[in-house]
Amino acid sequence: MMPTSSQVSKGDQLPELSISVTRGDLVRYAGASGDFNPIHYSGAFAQEVGLPDVIAHGMLTMALATRLVTDWLGDPGRIIEHGVRFTRPVVVPDDEHGARVDLSGKVASVDEEEGTAKLNLTAKCAGQGVLGGAYALVHLS
């Protein structure tokens, strides 16, 4: 059921979501996005430019945070605005488990007159935040 402004209050928590990102996911994302930067598939190149290993695409990480919101809303068309800062890369090991990204969200404010809510979002990998200032402004039904 989609949340309505009368059902949502400041401080409400969104259901948490954990997603595993593997190197196979990076290949699929590169194909879909056209972003074939070697930092997303070559460990040697990533290390040559100062990264610890292959990293996930920043926009893929942002999309995972968006999924948290759309799972809660039930309709991606209800997102009015969404933004993040990339603060730390998601390092993706070359194994079957990949990197786990843990996502959570909290209702920061509700505007009942407008029927909107601002959500503050958190994305962590290996216990460290990977997105800063992540938020979404959404229409409530």
UniProtKB/TrEMBL annotation:
Coiled coil: none
Gene Ontology CC entries for this record: fatty acid synthase complex
Source species, domain of life: Bacteria
InterPro entries: Fatty_acid_synthase, HotDog_dom_sf, MaoC-like_dom
GO molecular function: fatty acid synthase activity
Gene Ontology biological process terms, A to Z: fatty acid biosynthetic process
Pfam families in the record: MaoC_dehydratas
The MaoC-like domain, residue ranges: 13-122
Sequence similarity: Belongs to the enoyl-CoA hydratase/isomerase family.
UniProt protein name: MaoC like domain-containing protein
Naturally occurring in which organism (per UniProt): Actinopolyspora saharensis
